[in-house]
Predict the structure.
Amino acid sequence: MITFRLSCHRFVASALLASASLTFLSSPLFAEELPPSRSSGISVPEGQIEEAVAALDSIIVDIKARSGIPGIAVAVVHGDKTIYAKGFGVRGDKNSLPITPDTVFQLASLSKAVGATAVARQVSKGVVSWDSRMKDLLPWFALSDTAVRDKLTIGDLYSHRSGLPDHAGDELEVLGFDRQTILERLRLLPLSPFRISYAYTNFGLTAAAEAVAEASGVPWSDLTEEAVFKPLGMTHTSSRYKDFVARENRAIPHAITDDGFAPLYNRQPDAQSPAGGVSSSVNDMAKWMNMVLANGGDLIRPEALQPAISPQSFSKRPNSPDERASFYGYGFIVGTDPSGRVILSHSGAFILGSATHFTMIPSLDVGIVVLSNASPVGAVESIGSSFTDIVQTGAIRRDWFSGYEPLFAAFYKPLGQTAGKPFPKAAAAMPPASYCIGRYSHPYFGTVEVREDVSGELVLLAGPEQQVFHLEAWDGAMMVFDVDNENAPKDSRSGVRFSGGDDQAEILEVELLVYDGPARFERI
């Protein structure tokens, strides 16, 4: 799990898939009238959902205090109504203004499910189908295997079964490449077996969304607004980062530090907007959940929505006979709760300061969304699980935060073979600067440059905006630089090795650019 390319989206999706689960009812039938496949092992007596709502204040206050996160907003829907919507804590701005149900948060990977309903709306209108081929909608997009390219559909990419490597493209986003460039370079990556492999890919899904937008004749940010946000009255929701930062009532991202949470960074996710770029409030998300629980309501035909909320790929296969499997639909995590109910859910997070979660139980027509302005520590999932416990069983079955927190703590382990290690005392002398200086090329990462800065120290320049990484001598031709970004926790450190040639290095290897690194650059 611990790799440079592993973003919070991926960790949340993979670590929490087993906890996601619930069942879909389109009409209020009594249990004895249901077919066996829609029956639950536990009945929910009248008033139990209301009891869960009554317990929410104390649940949220407790987990907020234990986690230390600055701000949380929560909404619950039931019976086509918002029956709970509150804010707790502060936005994190200079005036320490309070969180309200209209405070706008970055949704991170909840954007996938929200965007999937925009696709379902276009499926309803006959613009596309989930089985529309990418080669027909977006001819310039390709993968490394032409046989896969000929068959690849919107649904394949929305269910993460294309064969692309896990989190393909995220490392290019961190370096500052734009969406078009990232999607074009996905063709250079090796593929796992098509439709039988699962790997969570923000930019694979983004490619599918781009294809739908192309077929619709409008940019993705406009499409989501026209297809979902405006019809549902989601006036505080957008797929554009500029709209988020323009909101007066917005939550400031807070990153985890040794001394708690602090507003250190901004996360600009426009490159992967369909996968992680939506911002919204819990009041708006409540409207969206009510639409999903109403099987599309007046917005989406049920047959267009149902594939999105149905298992399409194995996201977590059981490791023992008594372990439940987890599945991914089109933008939704789909699973089965211990009660036997189908659950629709998703979590999202930015390591730079956002953690979000929703859970919907269609058979009970109830849903909860939890948004926070802090790096993921398991708090939002713990609130959701505690609530759904009471909804289904009348009590909280376990201390969810003590279970989730260690999973997320592991995510902050620094990356790199030299991370946390002292610089060697008996290191070999580094080669002269002239041996290292120059431009190096890689088909996927493009051109990087090693040069001396104004102080005479070696630096590595990478990405279209030439991000600067300061190189430090480690041992001979190996150097290191510190890494701290969305894909690498604080105190991560990448190795850099120069080799080949007598007077000049011909090869530059950079450890923390790819999952199975190092990335090998050749001098040009």
